[in-house]
Amino acid sequence: MKKSRITIHLAIFIIFLVGCVHAMLSLAHSADEATEVKARYEKLLADYSQIVLHPTPKSPSATEYAVKNNMVSKELASLLRKDDEFAKKEGGMGYLDFDFLVNAQDLCKPLKIVGLVKNNATYAMQVSNRSKECCKECDETPYSFVLINESGVWKIDDAAYSFKDDSGADHKFSLKDVLNGKVD
Q: What is the dihedral of CA 50, 132, 99, 91, to 10 degrees?
């Protein structure tokens, strides 16, 4: 009787120990993944910032840069390309009238990632365009890119922006809403 009780306790302990090791490995994998995602986008956004800060006639648009560097999901790439085509037909301006990576029409400091949080199957990557560092009167509200895993690569699938109007009211909108003509 004692021997079977010891065997049961030992089996429970081993199962508990295996569960703890698995949980620790999962946490380590999540931390490694988040570190890799952040490092990838820090480099891409730093490189893009330099393009925007020092433009040349051959500088790529945000869409061109994001698509070339595999930064956007297939769906978002399609919406961005459609908006580019729409802009050509309309004489230069589509629904998107700002640089979606910068969340502005210009930039005075390199973009900075200020947070990265995993939420189930997505990451929310909070970014600042640091406009307050150059313009004391400017309203700087960090914005978030929604990243999804597409074929093993974390890609921007949408963005969440907000701004305050002259009355101080806060307005929130998404990149996909803009590209689909749902935002004025």
A: -120
Tokens read off for 146: 């929604």
Q: What is the pLDDT of residues 108-118, one digit of tens each?
A: 899 999 999 99
Distance between CA atoms of 181 and 178, rounded to whole angstroms? Answer: 5
Instruction: Let me know: does 176 contact 158? Beta carbons within 8 Å.
Output: yes
| Residue in the structure block whose two tokens are 């698995």 | 22
Q: Give me 132's structure tokens.
A: 């307050």
Q: Give the global pTM.
A: 0.79
